[in-house]
Amino acid sequence: MQIFVETHFKPSFKLLLRDAVNTTDKLVFKDELTGEAEELKALSEAEIILGNPKPAQKLLQATRLKWIQLASTGFEIYTGIKIPALATNLKDFYAVPCAETMIAGIMSLYRGMDRFSLLKEKQQWLGVSLREDLRLLTHKNVIILGAGSIGKQTAKLLTGFDCTIRFFARTSPEAGLRNARQLEGALPQADLVIGCLPGTPETKGLFTRKMITLMKPDALFCNVGRGNLLEDESALVDALMNEKIGGAVLDVTMQEPLPADHALWKCPNTIISQHTGGGYIDERKEMIRFFLKNLRAFKEGKPMENLIHLETGY
Amino acid sequence: MQIFVETHFKPSFKLLLRDAVNTTDKLVFKDELTGEAEELKALSEAEIILGNPKPAQKLLQATRLKWIQLASTGFEIYTGIKIPALATNLKDFYAVPCAETMIAGIMSLYRGMDRFSLLKEKQQWLGVSLREDLRLLTHKNVIILGAGSIGKQTAKLLTGFDCTIRFFARTSPEAGLRNARQLEGALPQADLVIGCLPGTPETKGLFTRKMITLMKPDALFCNVGRGNLLEDESALVDALMNEKIGGAVLDVTMQEPLPADHALWKCPNTIISQHTGGGYIDERKEMIRFFLKNLRAFKEGKPMENLIHLETGY
User: Rounded CA gap, A180 and B6, in Å?
Assistant: First the structure.
């Protein structure tokens, strides 16, 4: 079968793929093609795709496609793209790294790690005078937006910190907060708000300007879901610049990459983790392992993991 | 009674102390005295001391002393100082903040927070290319040196991360590693070594040059106990500079403050938290609360908390 690999892999990982597929399979790596014409031709011949062709319309070129394995959890960019092929995503694949990035960012602000990095560059010891700016994660009051795999993993990582945790989700049985009104009622007590929601029409703009104003002056706003969770990102910038809230840990932003002159770079007490939340040293290797497992199931007509409806976004 | 307050407190906290003691108690704050002579006079009149007079010999001036409440957990500087007074320390007081600083430092290195801080200063987005340098704390193999309150709290914070944890301690029933030979045997498998040992003659130089060489190339050496845990700090610098180990999280160092030209500032993948590990926003307030509780017990002849033998260091 002809397999089009959209995702960029290092040579060692390409070798891993080549070694694992059958001799009758033909692997075409996008990053080895030259020019749009070659790419469109390869897409039109592909029976299987590994990765996320962009822009989404490109996928309509893959008229022989039987299955696409996305290299992501989210797939909202393909909403409305109708293809007569199976589609699978990476679902829970990023739960552990994303949850760790949230906890790492929060602890970095609470325990001063962001300041220590800058002081180390200057070879400057401030010591004792830094102590009273530090805070503790232990016993904090936490609201997690979303009770999916990232949200649940975030709660799991907090186990040893004796936090009070409430989930906001429309339908999940774990969620104590089910609608905007309940969330607004809980925000004035929260030390941490951690956004772990996927990008869907329902989550777009869900965290309103008003909600930012309801947060405590020392509360942190954190987001590892989608940048457009915020109704108005500039309202967050304003709250940070004027220290109306305590800080932010942002893995995602409205614009990515964030332009060099963006106001968020200048916000105090803010960590910008540059949409690396899902990343880790074995990410590519594990992704290939997952693809090969699904490839075997696909060829043998067995149940595949993480089947999704590409067109509807679920 | 005359109470000499060695520890520096903000005016609001001094007020808290003044309001809490009896009208017959006289509070003398060291930072309100001018000159050594006034200080020595106040010490000679003190029946109670709050804080840690330095150098240790100064304590011998306090001939009327009945009780000293130290503002620290460690008190090795007073070893050999014989005074006919009660002594109490802050024992478990710093367990939560110190353990949090260790986890914050480790996660900062694993999840790239130290790099994000520097990139934010430069307003520079690197994004995807950073992902494969990131690592996960989940499932790591951890050795905790010391099974006291900080070591145990560190293990507690790791609960949600599914780590394998072994304690090194001579006598604690929790400790799987009891002597240098057993520790050396375990080091080649460890991802993290976290020093949580107090400063005693037995712990000085306990972590040897050889032990550093036994660590994995991606392992982190972390220390929130005492800088002299290392037999040879320059061997650690060498290991870091030549990337023989993965990095370090150092709350304590041999020299404090670390001089501006010290080699540790230049070590890659290293967090220097400037002996702030025990610090947090409510540290002073909680310290006063603890002192007042012990003061009441002292006056009423009831059992006091955290009694220690100053002279012997235990």
Answer: 52
